[in-house]
Design brief:
Strand content: over 45%
Order of helices and strands: EEEEEEEEEEE
Shape: globular
Low-confidence stretches: none
Mean pLDDT: 94
Length: about 110
């Protein structure tokens, strides 16, 4: 059974950094298409960054966030965090179907 498990969320002050990790377990196939989404209270879930053959970063976080992948793990490095980055961050993978992680809370507040 394929599972995506996120970690690395937490409370950080504005201007701070966090690194989210998402480990894919239970898969025997090559992992290619992965992404990070986020959902803030009262808002729709939005794509933050996607990585397949190349990385695509949303305009709202470009220059501050980077996505990378290593075997069965995808990372989201978040720098210069702002209060508007506060959200639950979800890991996503596509291989024949969509898979989602359970989400990790990121709170940016002083």
């Amino acid at each position: 059974q394929v599972q995506l498990v996120e970690s690395g969320g937490g409370l950080v002050q504005p201007g701070g950094s966090l690194r989210l990790s998402c480990v894919v377990s239970g898969s025997t196939f090559t992992i290619n298409d992965m992404a990070w989404y986020r959902q803030a209270p009262g808002k729709q879930r939005e794509l933050v960054a996607n990585i397949n053959s190349r990385a695509v970063i949303a305009d709202s976080v470009k220059g501050r966030f980077t996505i990378s992948k290593d075997k069965n793990t995808v990372y989201l490095q978040m720098n210069n965090l702002k209060p508007e980055d506060t959200a639950v961050y979800y890991c996503w993978m596509y291989k024949y179907r969509e898979y989602w992680g359970q989400g990790t809370q990121v709170t940016v507040s002083s």
